[in-house]
Every structure is written in C-alpha cells, then in structure tokens.
Amino acid sequence: MYVGRFVVVGPEVGAYRVSSRSFPNREITARDEALTVGPTEDAPETDNPYVSYNCLRVVETPTGETAAFGNGSHVDPIAEKLELGYPARDALAESLLALDYEKDDYDTPRIAATIGGDGEALIGTVRKDALLIETVDEPTLVATYEKNAPEAFEFDADGAAAAASAAYDLEFEHAVCAAGVARTDDGFETAIENGD
C-alpha cells in the first residue's frame, strides 16, 4: 500500500518517513540544528516547493526541550512557536492551518507531530476537508494518503536509530528516507536512515 509520507509518534519516540513515487532521489541530512530533506547529488533539478524542507527540529521551550517533525515547511513555524512558549497543541494547529494542505495535484495533507520533554506528545494533520490534532498516549500514525487521519499503530522502537530504521522498513511502498527521534534522560536524540 502506498501511503506517501508519514509520521508515527508514541509518546517517547517518533519517526518521519519520506515515501515517494515522484521524487525518490532525496535524503535526510543533519544541518544547523535540524534534520533536512533534500535532493541527492544525482537528483534531477526541480522547482517543486515541496521537495526540500526541515523535517525535524528539537527546540528549547519554557518547559524544556520539544521535538517537532513533519512533512514540510510547516515544521519551522511549529518549532518557532514552541520556542516562543506556545502550547504544542496551539503551535501545531496554528501552523498547520496557516500553511494549509499542499496545493499540488493531489491536495496533499500536511502532517506533523511533537514530543515534549514534559511527556506530552501530539499528532496532527491538515487536509482539504479537516484540521485534526490529537494527544498521543499510544503509538499513532498519520500519513498523507490512505491513512490521513491519526490512528493507533503498532510501532515498537527503542531509541532514535531504531525508530528511523523501523519506519524505513515498514511495508508501505516506495521508502526513500526516514528520521527518528527519542526522548532520553539527557534530552532528545535523533537519527537518520537513508537506506544506503
């Protein structure tokens, strides 16, 4: 089954995976306190605004560190609002609503999640027909296609590297790359799986 890009969170660990039929020549790199999706060196040039973006950021908030991750440019305003002290629910809702679903041929939803240092995790999506934000107390997934509303999902990963690998290895079609994040006693750890 092709579900496109997806996030899974719950509640100590999370992952984001790029799955793509149209732009498979992408990878995740670590740069400037963010994990960034972008084209590989051999990728054909494109002016598509949805191909490159920060997919995961860990930021300092008034209540401690929080991780924000998702499938597009909305990750940056979510992270910025968290830094300013917005509650995670408000940061997700306002950013997703402001940027809205992607205006491409498929009306692709925007998806995102947060994991707070205080133990709170949330997941959300904005589609052409809905804005959904839910608190997570068990592993939950939302994808751009087919599974475009948050749903309970079996995801057993211990640590960021395991989360990235587990997301990459899920049987959904057209895996390209994945990022993982996990809350630890020393803050957040992140990991990248580019399927090398």
Topology:
Layout: E1 6-9, E2 13-19, E3 26-31, E4 34-39, E5 53-61, E6 64-70, H1 75-83, H2 88-99, E7 110-116, E8 121-127, E9 130-135, E10 140-143, E11 151-152, H3 160-169, E12 175-184, E13 187-193
Antiparallel strand pairs: 1-2, 1-10, 2-12, 3-4, 4-5, 5-6, 6-7, 7-8, 8-9, 10-11, 12-13
Helix pairs in contact: 1-2
EC number: 3.5.4.10
Catalytic activity: IMP + H2O = 5-formamido-1-(5-phospho-D-ribosyl)imidazole-4-carboxamide
Function: Catalyzes the cyclization of 5-formylamidoimidazole-4-carboxamide ribonucleotide to IMP.
Question: Could you explain how this protein is built, in words?
Answer:
This protein is α+β, with helices and mostly antiparallel strands. It has a single domain, classed as Inosine monophosphate cyclohydrolase-like (Glutamine Phosphoribosylpyrophosphate, subunit 1, domain 1). The protein contains three helices and 13 strands. The strands form two sheets. Strands 3-4-5-6-7-8-9 form a seven-stranded antiparallel sheet, with helices on one face. Strand 3 and strand 4 form a beta hairpin. InterPro entries: IMP_cyclohydrolase, IMP_cyclohydrolase-like, IMP_cyclohydrolase-like_sf. GO terms for molecular function: IMP cyclohydrolase activity. It is an enzyme of class 3 (hydrolase). It comes from Natrinema pellirubrum (strain DSM 15624 / CIP 106293 / JCM 10476 / NCIMB 786 / 157).
